UniProtKB/TrEMBL annotation:
This is Helix-turn-helix domain-containing protein. InterPro entries: Homeodomain-like_sf (IPR009057). Pfam families: HTH_23. It comes from the Bacteria. Residues 41-70 are annotated as: Disordered.
Amino acid sequence: MDKKAKALELYLEGFKVVEIAQQLGISQPAVTKILKQFPEYHQEKERRKKENQEKARQWRNEYKKQKREQYDEEYEMLKKSHTPVLKRRKFSDEALIKSTILHYDYNKEKERLIFNENTGKKPADLPRSVYVHKNVLKQFRIPTRQ
């Protein structure tokens, strides 16, 4: 059996061009050049392409499904915890901090509330620190003598 027929036979059996080149002892470009002469090669290449696209689509769908399930589990855990679940709308810093006050520590020197990383990961919509002024959380304000 000559190399052309052998290359086509191996390709149709499912071997890759790299593997065929190794078996026949020729370069990969030479194998591709040989295979391009046959119409069966183009049909098989299209079939493999569609098969790979289908595998990729299934993988993406499975990945999205896993992420949704993970998100749902995390959401359920949040619902069960005592931390209020915030809906997707804008809250003022004051409202956000009041709802998560247990996650902040007060720094007297800087007159700031600073998020305590030991209580968990800081959500993106919460500020890392907040200056405590007369409009925000008056109970932390240091009384001034007049």
